[in-house]
Amino acid sequence: DELTVKLPELIAQDNATLVLFSSYWQMEQVAKSLREKHKMTIQVQGEQSRQHIIEDHKKNCDQDKPSIIFGTQSFSEGLDLPGKYLTNLIITKLPFSVPTSPVEEAQAEYISAKGGNPFMSLSVPDTSKKLVQATGRLLRNEKDTGTITIMDKRLITKRYGKDLLNSLPPYKIIKH
After folding, report:
1. What are phi and psi of 168, to 5 degrees?
2. Separation CA 134–CA 154 (nearest Å)
3. C-alpha radius of gyration, the chain, whole number
4. What angle do CA 17, 30, 131 make, to 5 degrees?
5. Which pTM does this prediction carry?
6. CA count, 13 A, side-chain hemisphere, 84
């Protein structure tokens, strides 16, 4: 609900927007709501091929029309939208992954057995890497400019948030 309220204002700032979600379910619910309540045209990962979404997005940007892409973690990797093709990146939630594989669980057990904190030793560095990767969608070269909005309040309310912010390139940071 909070995303449905705040995203229209954040999206209205620029013509070329990418919104990254941590779950398909949340992405689809927010897209449905914004389409119904705000009559927004949104290209949503999974509704068409990745290539078609990118081609359509670039065509809209070339015609100076607003273009909004909603995607999940896979859209934070290997997506090349330089210059005017991406000027507004919104990350709805920090990209923490759930340790599900036996190897990850074993690593966490080992760290715990040695008196360490698996969350700080494994999860935070992994999230840091993913966050750097995601923010890299906006700045592809030295001439690129734009706004990155991370909507997860844990960046400022949790102890590890400062570590995550410090792992990012030297962006100008404004906290709200």
Report:
1. -75, 155
2. 17
3. 17
4. 50
5. 0.88
6. 10
Which residues are paired to 20 by β-bridges? Answer: 71, 91
**Core vs surface per residue 37-63: b (16+ CB within 10 A) or e:** eeebebbbbeeeeeeebbeebeebbee
Place of tokens 């906290």: 175
**Alpha-carbon span 46 to 44, nearest angstrom:** 6
Q: In angstroms, rounded to a whole number, what is the distance separating the alpha carbons of residues 9 and 6? A: 6
> 83, 102 in Cβ contact below 8 A?
no
**What is the per-residue pLDDT across 23-50, written as a single tens digit (0 to 9) for each?**
999 999 999 999 999 999 999 999 999 9
Q: In what order do the strands lie in the sheet with 43-44?
A: 43-44, 67-71, 16-20, 88-91, 147-150
The two structure tokens encoding residue 92: 């709805």
Whether residue 67 contacts residue 17, with contact meaning beta carbons closer than 8 Å, is answered with yes
The span from the CA of 26 to the CA of 56, in Å, is 23
Reported as a single tens digit per residue, the pLDDT across 68-124 is: 999 998 898 888 898 899 999 999 999 887 767 787 888 888 889 999 888 888 888
Q: Where are the alpha helices (DSSP H) in 2-146?
A: 2-11, 24-38, 50-62, 102-113, 118, 124-135
CA distance 8 to 22: 19
